[in-house]
Segregation and condensation protein B (Cohnella phaseoli), 203 residues
Amino acid sequence: MNYSTLKSVLEGLLFVSGDEGISAKTAAEVVETDVAVVADVLKDLQKDFSKKSRGIRIAEVAGSFRLTTASEHAPFFEKLAYSPSRSSLSQAALETLAIIAYKQPITRIEIEEIRGVKADRPIHHLVNKDLIEEKGRADALGRPILYGTTKAFLDYFGLPGIQSLPEPTFADGDDELEERTKLLFDRIEGRQLSLEDLDRELE
């Protein structure tokens, strides 16, 4: 594999690795290249992103490389996260929240296995809304982040504790995720609150 192709493949691996990122060792195993070479290429990519003033950066955290955003752009991301048009929970976010609430602590990969689709965006949205947070790292390859619900989640859904989540009732053929999502949605409807209301309550 030539240098240009290797660089392109590694950039793609960073993208699909999401929040957990990828270590030079793991990336080297995937591309079947010496780990020192892969580490050098990742650092070159890191310099390229910074030098060209790209909106995306490559951060090295706890031995893993991951895509992140330029810190100086944070005010714009905050404005987007809290804009009125994005204040309600999408179906994807609600499904992801239901999985985390009932299965916590849980990794992004485990969430995606249950939903069958990528979960990066819903997780990012829920973290921004302070409904979920990092609860540590799983004892697995790459030490993936474990997610769980926050105190704000309990406040939002009017729960004294996580043990007070409504228990799903399954009939034959019922889908577990659909049932749990419906229970959380019913909670929202019952309180007639939007995430904009939550933001005001938490101020």
Notes: Residues 4 and 41 are 10 Å apart (CA to CA). The domain at 91-189 is CATH 1.10.10.10 (Arc Repressor Mutant, subunit A). Residues 189-203 have pLDDT under 50 and may be disordered. Residues 35-51 form the longest helix (17 residues).
